[in-house]
Amino acid sequence: MPPGKVLQPVLKMKVDELFLRWLSESGTQLMLQECLRVQTKKEEPLPPAASQSIPAFYFPRGRPKETVNVDAVIAKIERAFAQFPHERATMENMGLVAKACGCPLYWKAPLFCGAGGERTGSVSVHKFVAMWRKVLHGCHDDAAKFVHLLMNPGCNYLVQEDFVPFLQVIQRIFYTVNRSWSGRITCAELRRSTFLQNVALLEEEADINQLTEYFSYEHFYVIYCKFWELDTDHDLLIDAQDLARHNDHAISAKMIDRIFSGAVTRGRKVQKEGKISYADFVWFLISEEDKKTPTSIEYWFRCMDLDGDGALSMFELEYFYEEQCRRLDSMAIEALPFQDCLCQMLDLVKPRSEGKITLRDLKQCKLANVFFDTFFNIEKYLDHEQKEQVCLLRESDSDGPELSDWEKYAAEEYDILVAEEAAGEPWEDGYDAELSPVDQKLSALRTPLAQRPFFEAPSALSAVDLYEYACADDDLQPL
Ligand SMILES: [Ca+2]
Ligand SMILES: [Ca+2]
Protein backbone atom coordinates (compact mmCIF):
# COMPACT_ATOMS: atom_id res chain seq x y z
CA MET A 1 0.00 0.00 0.00
CA PRO A 2 1.48 3.39 -0.89
CA PRO A 3 2.39 5.34 2.22
CA GLY A 4 0.22 8.27 1.22
CA LYS A 5 -2.91 6.21 1.62
CA VAL A 6 -2.05 5.11 5.13
CA LEU A 7 -1.21 8.63 6.18
CA GLN A 8 -4.21 10.24 4.66
CA PRO A 9 -6.77 9.74 7.47
CA VAL A 10 -4.21 10.82 10.09
CA LEU A 11 -3.32 13.85 8.07
CA LYS A 12 -6.97 14.69 7.72
CA MET A 13 -7.43 14.43 11.47
CA LYS A 14 -4.49 16.76 12.00
CA VAL A 15 -5.86 19.23 9.48
CA ASP A 16 -9.26 19.06 11.16
CA GLU A 17 -7.68 19.62 14.54
CA LEU A 18 -5.69 22.60 13.31
CA PHE A 19 -8.74 23.99 11.58
CA LEU A 20 -10.78 23.70 14.77
CA ARG A 21 -8.04 25.35 16.75
CA TRP A 22 -7.84 28.18 14.22
CA LEU A 23 -11.62 28.45 14.26
CA SER A 24 -11.74 28.75 18.04
CA GLU A 25 -9.28 31.63 18.20
CA SER A 26 -10.98 34.87 19.10
CA GLY A 27 -9.27 36.75 16.24
CA THR A 28 -10.65 34.25 13.74
CA GLN A 29 -14.12 34.49 15.21
CA LEU A 30 -14.09 38.25 15.02
CA MET A 31 -12.97 38.10 11.43
CA LEU A 32 -15.63 35.55 10.51
CA GLN A 33 -18.35 37.54 12.22
CA GLU A 34 -17.26 40.56 10.27
CA CYS A 35 -17.22 38.60 6.98
CA LEU A 36 -20.64 37.11 7.65
CA ARG A 37 -22.07 40.49 8.42
CA VAL A 38 -20.76 41.91 5.16
CA GLN A 39 -21.85 38.86 3.23
CA THR A 40 -25.35 38.95 4.64
CA LYS A 41 -25.63 42.49 3.49
CA LYS A 42 -24.35 41.59 0.03
CA GLU A 43 -26.70 38.65 -0.34
CA GLU A 44 -29.76 40.57 0.56
CA PRO A 45 -32.20 40.34 -2.33
CA LEU A 46 -32.63 43.46 -4.33
CA PRO A 47 -35.23 45.59 -2.67
CA PRO A 48 -38.55 45.77 -4.41
CA ALA A 49 -39.07 48.94 -6.32
CA ALA A 50 -41.48 50.33 -3.76
CA SER A 51 -38.87 50.33 -1.00
CA GLN A 52 -36.40 52.36 -3.02
CA SER A 53 -37.88 55.48 -1.61
CA ILE A 54 -37.07 54.34 1.93
CA PRO A 55 -33.92 56.22 2.94
CA ALA A 56 -30.84 54.28 4.04
CA PHE A 57 -30.73 53.76 7.78
CA TYR A 58 -27.60 51.67 8.30
CA PHE A 59 -24.53 53.91 8.71
CA PRO A 60 -21.62 51.99 10.28
CA ARG A 61 -19.41 55.04 9.90
CA GLY A 62 -21.96 57.56 11.00
CA ARG A 63 -24.60 59.32 9.03
CA PRO A 64 -23.04 61.49 6.33
CA LYS A 65 -23.65 65.18 6.84
CA GLU A 66 -24.12 67.15 3.71
CA THR A 67 -23.21 70.33 5.50
CA VAL A 68 -19.51 69.56 6.03
CA ASN A 69 -17.46 71.85 3.85
CA VAL A 70 -14.25 69.86 3.70
CA ASP A 71 -12.25 72.58 1.99
CA ALA A 72 -13.23 75.16 4.58
CA VAL A 73 -12.18 72.83 7.40
CA ILE A 74 -8.86 72.09 5.70
CA ALA A 75 -8.21 75.80 5.17
CA LYS A 76 -8.80 76.38 8.87
CA ILE A 77 -6.37 73.61 9.78
CA GLU A 78 -3.75 75.03 7.43
CA ARG A 79 -4.12 78.44 9.07
CA ALA A 80 -3.51 76.81 12.45
CA PHE A 81 -0.38 75.05 11.19
CA ALA A 82 0.91 78.26 9.64
CA GLN A 83 1.50 79.56 13.17
CA PHE A 84 3.93 76.77 14.04
CA PRO A 85 7.63 76.67 13.11
CA HIS A 86 8.10 74.87 9.77
CA GLU A 87 4.35 74.25 9.78
CA ARG A 88 4.88 71.26 12.05
CA ALA A 89 2.75 70.70 15.11
CA THR A 90 4.13 69.19 18.28
CA MET A 91 1.89 67.67 20.91
CA GLU A 92 1.83 71.10 22.56
CA ASN A 93 0.33 72.66 19.44
CA MET A 94 -2.37 70.07 19.01
CA GLY A 95 -4.94 71.94 21.09
CA LEU A 96 -5.21 74.57 18.35
CA VAL A 97 -5.33 71.91 15.68
CA ALA A 98 -8.07 70.01 17.50
CA LYS A 99 -10.12 73.19 17.65
CA ALA A 100 -9.54 73.85 13.95
CA CYS A 101 -10.83 70.34 13.25
CA GLY A 102 -13.91 71.09 15.28
CA CYS A 103 -12.98 68.42 17.81
CA PRO A 104 -13.06 68.64 21.58
CA LEU A 105 -9.73 69.82 23.01
CA TYR A 106 -8.85 66.43 24.46
CA TRP A 107 -8.92 64.73 21.13
CA LYS A 108 -5.54 66.28 20.61
CA ALA A 109 -3.59 63.16 21.59
CA PRO A 110 -5.64 60.83 19.36
CA LEU A 111 -5.30 63.37 16.52
CA PHE A 112 -1.56 63.58 17.07
CA CYS A 113 -1.13 59.81 17.08
CA GLY A 114 -3.57 59.36 14.19
CA ALA A 115 -1.22 61.47 12.06
CA GLY A 116 1.84 59.50 13.18
CA GLY A 117 3.05 62.15 15.61
CA GLU A 118 4.11 59.66 18.24
CA ARG A 119 6.78 58.36 15.88
CA THR A 120 8.56 61.62 15.24
CA GLY A 121 7.45 64.00 17.96
CA SER A 122 5.67 66.31 15.51
CA VAL A 123 3.42 66.20 12.45
CA SER A 124 3.70 68.18 9.25
CA VAL A 125 0.76 70.07 7.83
CA HIS A 126 0.72 67.79 4.75
CA LYS A 127 0.61 64.62 6.76
CA PHE A 128 -2.08 65.94 9.05
CA VAL A 129 -4.29 67.30 6.28
CA ALA A 130 -4.03 64.04 4.30
CA MET A 131 -5.02 62.09 7.40
CA TRP A 132 -7.90 64.40 8.28
CA ARG A 133 -9.27 64.44 4.73
CA LYS A 134 -9.48 60.69 4.85
CA VAL A 135 -11.30 60.86 8.17
CA LEU A 136 -13.76 63.46 6.90
CA HIS A 137 -14.52 61.41 3.82
CA GLY A 138 -14.91 58.11 5.59
CA CYS A 139 -16.16 58.90 9.08
CA HIS A 140 -19.30 60.90 9.62
CA ASP A 141 -19.72 61.11 13.36
CA ASP A 142 -17.54 61.41 16.44
CA ALA A 143 -17.55 57.71 17.24
CA ALA A 144 -16.40 56.74 13.75
CA LYS A 145 -13.69 59.42 13.80
CA PHE A 146 -12.46 58.45 17.25
CA VAL A 147 -12.18 54.77 16.34
CA HIS A 148 -10.40 55.65 13.11
CA LEU A 149 -7.82 57.76 14.97
CA LEU A 150 -7.00 55.20 17.63
CA MET A 151 -7.36 51.87 15.89
CA ASN A 152 -4.56 49.84 14.40
CA PRO A 153 -4.40 50.03 10.62
CA GLY A 154 -6.71 47.49 9.05
CA CYS A 155 -9.03 47.20 12.06
CA ASN A 156 -12.41 48.73 12.54
CA TYR A 157 -12.59 48.42 16.29
CA LEU A 158 -10.57 49.38 19.34
CA VAL A 159 -8.79 46.90 21.56
CA GLN A 160 -7.45 47.46 25.06
CA GLU A 161 -3.95 48.35 24.00
CA ASP A 162 -5.30 51.27 21.99
CA PHE A 163 -5.97 52.83 25.37
CA VAL A 164 -2.48 52.31 26.79
CA PRO A 165 -2.00 56.05 27.43
CA PHE A 166 -5.16 56.09 29.53
CA LEU A 167 -4.12 52.97 31.44
CA GLN A 168 -0.77 54.52 32.20
CA VAL A 169 -2.49 57.59 33.59
CA ILE A 170 -4.40 55.30 35.96
CA GLN A 171 -1.13 53.92 37.29
CA ARG A 172 0.26 57.42 37.76
CA ILE A 173 -2.85 58.51 39.62
CA PHE A 174 -2.57 55.59 42.02
CA TYR A 175 1.17 56.08 42.37
CA THR A 176 0.74 59.66 43.51
CA VAL A 177 -2.69 59.74 45.16
CA ASN A 178 -3.13 56.33 46.77
CA ARG A 179 -0.68 57.01 49.58
CA SER A 180 -1.94 54.07 51.63
CA TRP A 181 -1.02 51.52 48.91
CA SER A 182 -4.45 50.02 49.47
CA GLY A 183 -5.53 50.10 45.83
CA ARG A 184 -8.51 52.19 46.95
CA ILE A 185 -8.42 55.97 46.78
CA THR A 186 -10.39 57.48 49.63
CA CYS A 187 -11.85 60.97 49.83
CA ALA A 188 -9.14 61.93 52.29
CA GLU A 189 -6.39 60.79 49.94
CA LEU A 190 -7.96 62.61 47.05
CA ARG A 191 -8.29 65.78 49.11
CA ARG A 192 -4.65 65.74 50.09
CA SER A 193 -3.47 65.14 46.53
CA THR A 194 -3.27 67.63 43.70
CA PHE A 195 -5.23 65.39 41.38
CA LEU A 196 -8.43 67.40 41.15
CA GLN A 197 -6.50 70.64 40.75
CA ASN A 198 -4.67 69.00 37.85
CA VAL A 199 -7.93 67.91 36.29
CA ALA A 200 -9.21 71.48 36.58
CA LEU A 201 -6.01 72.80 35.03
CA LEU A 202 -6.49 70.60 31.99
CA GLU A 203 -9.05 73.11 30.83
CA GLU A 204 -6.72 76.10 31.00
CA GLU A 205 -3.34 74.61 30.25
CA ALA A 206 -2.82 74.43 26.50
CA ASP A 207 0.26 72.25 26.90
CA ILE A 208 -0.57 68.97 28.54
CA ASN A 209 3.13 68.33 29.05
CA GLN A 210 3.21 71.06 31.67
CA LEU A 211 0.97 68.91 33.85
CA THR A 212 3.74 66.51 34.63
CA GLU A 213 2.17 64.82 37.61
CA TYR A 214 -0.32 62.67 35.72
CA PHE A 215 -1.06 63.70 32.18
CA SER A 216 2.19 64.42 30.38
CA TYR A 217 2.32 62.90 26.93
CA GLU A 218 6.11 63.03 27.04
CA HIS A 219 6.15 61.00 30.23
CA PHE A 220 3.82 58.47 28.68
CA TYR A 221 6.11 58.17 25.70
CA VAL A 222 9.25 57.70 27.77
CA ILE A 223 7.74 55.01 29.99
CA TYR A 224 6.27 53.17 27.04
CA CYS A 225 9.52 53.20 25.07
CA LYS A 226 11.56 52.06 28.06
CA PHE A 227 9.20 49.15 28.51
CA TRP A 228 9.30 48.36 24.82
CA GLU A 229 13.10 48.05 24.93
CA LEU A 230 12.91 45.43 27.68
CA ASP A 231 9.86 43.53 26.48
CA THR A 232 11.62 41.91 23.54
CA ASP A 233 8.83 39.45 22.70
CA HIS A 234 6.22 42.21 23.09
CA ASP A 235 3.68 40.31 25.12
CA LEU A 236 3.51 43.24 27.54
CA LEU A 237 4.98 41.15 30.32
CA ILE A 238 8.59 41.17 31.44
CA ASP A 239 10.57 38.70 33.49
CA ALA A 240 13.50 39.26 35.85
CA GLN A 241 16.08 38.97 33.08
CA ASP A 242 14.26 41.57 31.01
CA LEU A 243 14.06 43.99 33.92
CA ALA A 244 17.70 43.42 34.81
CA ARG A 245 18.64 44.90 31.44
CA HIS A 246 17.17 48.26 32.45
CA ASN A 247 19.87 50.89 32.47
CA ASP A 248 22.55 48.39 31.51
CA HIS A 249 22.23 46.13 34.56
CA ALA A 250 22.70 48.96 37.03
CA ILE A 251 20.33 47.38 39.55
CA SER A 252 21.56 44.49 41.65
CA ALA A 253 20.28 40.98 41.05
CA LYS A 254 19.12 40.76 44.66
CA MET A 255 16.94 43.82 44.21
CA ILE A 256 15.51 42.53 40.94
CA ASP A 257 14.60 39.34 42.81
CA ARG A 258 12.85 41.39 45.48
CA ILE A 259 10.79 43.26 42.91
CA PHE A 260 9.64 39.94 41.52
CA SER A 261 8.96 38.54 44.98
CA GLY A 262 5.73 40.53 45.13
CA ALA A 263 7.01 42.97 47.75
CA VAL A 264 5.85 45.95 45.70
CA THR A 265 3.09 44.65 43.49
CA ARG A 266 0.47 46.07 45.79
CA GLY A 267 -1.14 42.75 46.55
CA ARG A 268 -2.33 42.46 42.99
CA LYS A 269 -2.30 39.17 41.20
CA VAL A 270 -0.01 40.54 38.55
CA GLN A 271 2.71 37.99 38.39
CA LYS A 272 2.27 35.38 35.77
CA GLU A 273 4.93 32.73 35.75
CA GLY A 274 7.51 35.08 37.15
CA LYS A 275 6.55 38.04 35.01
CA ILE A 276 5.34 41.51 35.84
CA SER A 277 2.94 43.64 33.86
CA TYR A 278 3.24 47.01 32.19
CA ALA A 279 1.38 48.57 35.11
CA ASP A 280 4.06 47.31 37.48
CA PHE A 281 6.77 48.65 35.24
CA VAL A 282 5.26 52.14 35.50
CA TRP A 283 5.68 51.93 39.27
CA PHE A 284 9.18 50.53 38.96
CA LEU A 285 10.48 53.12 36.51
CA ILE A 286 9.14 56.16 38.32
CA SER A 287 10.50 54.80 41.60
CA GLU A 288 13.86 53.96 40.10
CA GLU A 289 14.36 57.33 38.46
CA ASP A 290 13.19 59.43 41.39
CA LYS A 291 13.99 57.98 44.79
CA LYS A 292 12.93 61.07 46.72
CA THR A 293 9.16 60.94 46.54
CA PRO A 294 7.14 59.35 49.37
CA THR A 295 5.83 56.56 47.13
CA SER A 296 9.29 55.79 45.80
CA ILE A 297 10.78 55.69 49.31
CA GLU A 298 8.02 53.31 50.34
CA TYR A 299 8.59 51.22 47.22
CA TRP A 300 12.27 50.62 47.91
CA PHE A 301 11.74 50.34 51.63
CA ARG A 302 9.36 47.46 51.05
CA CYS A 303 11.92 45.80 48.83
CA MET A 304 14.72 46.14 51.35
CA ASP A 305 12.63 45.13 54.35
CA LEU A 306 13.18 41.41 53.81
CA ASP A 307 11.32 40.25 56.90
CA GLY A 308 8.53 42.79 56.56
CA ASP A 309 8.82 44.10 60.12
CA GLY A 310 8.65 47.75 59.06
CA ALA A 311 12.32 48.52 59.75
CA LEU A 312 15.61 47.99 57.97
CA SER A 313 18.00 46.05 60.17
CA MET A 314 21.77 46.07 59.83
CA PHE A 315 21.47 42.51 58.54
CA GLU A 316 19.16 43.63 55.75
CA LEU A 317 21.53 46.40 54.76
CA GLU A 318 24.48 44.01 54.71
CA TYR A 319 22.51 41.52 52.62
CA PHE A 320 22.21 44.09 49.82
CA TYR A 321 25.62 45.71 50.29
CA GLU A 322 27.38 42.38 49.86
CA GLU A 323 26.43 42.20 46.18
CA GLN A 324 27.48 45.81 45.61
CA CYS A 325 30.92 44.98 47.02
CA ARG A 326 31.27 42.01 44.71
CA ARG A 327 30.30 44.11 41.72
CA LEU A 328 32.73 46.90 42.60
CA ASP A 329 35.36 44.23 43.02
CA SER A 330 34.75 42.93 39.53
CA MET A 331 35.16 46.47 38.25
CA ALA A 332 38.49 46.71 40.09
CA ILE A 333 37.13 49.40 42.36
CA GLU A 334 37.89 49.11 46.02
CA ALA A 335 34.68 48.96 48.01
CA LEU A 336 34.27 50.43 51.47
CA PRO A 337 34.06 47.74 54.14
CA PHE A 338 30.46 47.30 55.27
CA GLN A 339 31.11 48.85 58.69
CA ASP A 340 32.47 52.04 57.12
CA CYS A 341 29.62 52.21 54.66
CA LEU A 342 27.17 51.67 57.50
CA CYS A 343 28.68 54.57 59.46
CA GLN A 344 28.31 56.81 56.43
CA MET A 345 24.72 55.78 55.90
CA LEU A 346 23.74 56.17 59.55
CA ASP A 347 25.30 59.60 59.41
CA LEU A 348 23.24 60.40 56.37
CA VAL A 349 19.91 59.04 57.59
CA LYS A 350 20.29 59.80 61.30
CA PRO A 351 17.80 57.15 62.46
CA ARG A 352 15.90 57.90 65.64
CA SER A 353 16.40 54.43 67.06
CA GLU A 354 19.74 52.74 67.06
CA GLY A 355 20.20 49.63 64.98
CA LYS A 356 17.28 50.13 62.63
CA ILE A 357 16.14 52.50 59.93
CA THR A 358 12.45 53.29 59.60
CA LEU A 359 10.43 54.64 56.76
CA ARG A 360 10.02 57.89 58.62
CA ASP A 361 13.81 58.25 59.04
CA LEU A 362 14.28 57.89 55.30
CA LYS A 363 11.51 60.32 54.41
CA GLN A 364 12.97 62.93 56.70
CA CYS A 365 16.63 62.63 55.69
CA LYS A 366 16.13 64.08 52.19
CA LEU A 367 18.87 61.87 50.79
CA ALA A 368 16.94 58.63 50.49
CA ASN A 369 18.14 58.39 46.88
CA VAL A 370 21.79 58.24 47.97
CA PHE A 371 20.91 55.69 50.65
CA PHE A 372 19.04 53.36 48.27
CA ASP A 373 21.53 53.62 45.43
CA THR A 374 24.33 52.69 47.81
CA PHE A 375 22.65 49.34 48.39
CA PHE A 376 21.41 48.29 44.97
CA ASN A 377 22.27 50.60 42.07
CA ILE A 378 25.94 50.44 41.18
CA GLU A 379 25.88 53.11 38.52
CA LYS A 380 24.08 55.70 40.56
CA TYR A 381 26.11 54.79 43.63
CA LEU A 382 29.29 55.64 41.75
CA ASP A 383 27.70 58.86 40.52
CA HIS A 384 26.90 59.93 44.06
CA GLU A 385 30.38 59.00 45.19
CA GLN A 386 31.80 61.47 42.71
CA LYS A 387 29.81 64.30 44.16
CA GLU A 388 30.46 65.75 47.54
CA GLN A 389 27.60 65.12 49.90
CA VAL A 390 27.63 68.76 50.84
CA CYS A 391 26.94 69.48 47.24
CA LEU A 392 24.08 66.98 47.23
CA LEU A 393 22.56 68.61 50.25
CA ARG A 394 22.81 72.05 48.74
CA GLU A 395 21.17 70.73 45.63
CA SER A 396 18.21 69.34 47.53
CA ASP A 397 17.94 72.45 49.69
CA SER A 398 17.63 74.91 46.87
CA ASP A 399 14.15 76.32 46.68
CA GLY A 400 12.10 77.46 43.75
CA PRO A 401 10.19 75.35 41.29
CA GLU A 402 12.99 72.91 40.65
CA LEU A 403 12.24 69.88 38.53
CA SER A 404 11.97 66.56 40.31
CA ASP A 405 14.45 63.81 39.46
CA TRP A 406 11.70 62.06 37.54
CA GLU A 407 10.85 65.17 35.53
CA LYS A 408 14.51 65.72 34.66
CA TYR A 409 14.93 62.10 33.63
CA ALA A 410 11.77 62.09 31.52
CA ALA A 411 12.70 65.34 29.75
CA GLU A 412 16.20 64.10 28.89
CA GLU A 413 15.02 60.70 27.75
CA TYR A 414 12.23 62.21 25.67
CA ASP A 415 14.69 64.38 23.77
CA ILE A 416 16.93 61.39 23.13
CA LEU A 417 14.06 59.17 21.99
CA VAL A 418 12.62 61.80 19.66
CA ALA A 419 16.06 62.40 18.15
CA GLU A 420 16.53 58.65 17.63
CA GLU A 421 13.11 58.28 16.05
CA ALA A 422 13.68 61.25 13.76
CA ALA A 423 17.08 59.90 12.68
CA GLY A 424 15.61 56.53 11.78
CA GLU A 425 12.57 57.93 10.03
CA PRO A 426 13.00 57.76 6.25
CA TRP A 427 9.63 59.24 5.35
CA GLU A 428 9.00 62.75 6.46
CA ASP A 429 6.91 65.55 5.10
CA GLY A 430 3.76 63.77 4.19
CA TYR A 431 5.09 61.04 1.94
CA ASP A 432 3.74 58.29 4.10
CA ALA A 433 0.29 59.74 3.75
CA GLU A 434 0.45 58.40 0.22
CA LEU A 435 1.63 54.92 1.19
CA SER A 436 -0.45 51.91 0.33
CA PRO A 437 -2.40 50.32 3.18
CA VAL A 438 0.23 47.58 3.38
CA ASP A 439 3.05 50.09 3.63
CA GLN A 440 1.11 52.03 6.21
CA LYS A 441 0.74 48.89 8.26
CA LEU A 442 4.45 48.17 7.91
CA SER A 443 5.45 51.66 8.89
CA ALA A 444 3.07 51.52 11.81
CA LEU A 445 4.74 48.32 12.93
CA ARG A 446 7.96 50.18 13.39
CA THR A 447 6.49 52.14 16.21
CA PRO A 448 6.23 50.50 19.58
CA LEU A 449 2.71 51.82 20.04
CA ALA A 450 1.37 50.07 17.02
CA GLN A 451 2.99 46.73 17.61
CA ARG A 452 1.62 46.00 21.03
CA PRO A 453 -0.14 42.69 20.79
CA PHE A 454 -2.10 42.80 23.97
CA PHE A 455 -2.31 45.01 26.96
CA GLU A 456 -3.37 43.55 30.21
CA ALA A 457 -5.75 45.88 31.92
CA PRO A 458 -4.88 46.46 35.55
CA SER A 459 -6.67 43.74 37.44
CA ALA A 460 -8.90 44.70 40.32
CA LEU A 461 -6.76 46.12 43.05
CA SER A 462 -7.08 44.35 46.31
CA ALA A 463 -6.81 46.13 49.58
CA VAL A 464 -3.77 44.30 50.85
CA ASP A 465 -1.75 46.60 52.96
CA LEU A 466 1.44 44.82 53.76
CA TYR A 467 2.51 47.02 56.59
CA GLU A 468 0.92 48.74 59.48
CA TYR A 469 3.10 51.77 59.08
CA ALA A 470 0.84 54.63 58.39
CA CYS A 471 2.20 56.30 55.32
CA ALA A 472 -0.45 58.94 55.63
CA ASP A 473 0.78 60.03 59.04
CA ASP A 474 4.29 60.23 57.77
CA ASP A 475 3.25 62.58 55.08
CA LEU A 476 1.82 65.00 57.55
CA GLN A 477 5.13 65.31 59.34
CA PRO A 478 6.83 68.55 58.49
CA LEU A 479 10.05 67.72 56.76
CA1 LIG B 1 7.75 39.89 27.26
CA1 LIG C 1 13.19 44.38 58.42
TrEMBL record:
InterPro entries: EF-hand-dom_pair, EF-hand_13, EF_Hand_1_Ca_BS, EF_hand_dom, P2R3A_B_D_EF-hand. GO terms for molecular function: calcium ion binding; protein phosphatase regulator activity. Keywords: Calcium, Metal-binding. The keyword Calcium applies. GO terms for cellular component: cilium; cytosol; nucleoplasm; protein phosphatase type 2A complex. Residues 292-327 form the EF-hand domain. Gene3D superfamilies: 1.10.238.220, 1.10.238.230, EF-hand. PANTHER family: PHOSPHATASE 2A REGULATORY SUBUNIT-RELATED (PTHR14095), SERINE_THREONINE-PROTEIN PHOSPHATASE 2A REGULATORY SUBUNIT B'' SUBUNIT BETA (PTHR14095:SF1). This is Protein phosphatase 2 regulatory subunit B''beta. It comes from Propithecus coquereli. The gene is PPP2R3B.
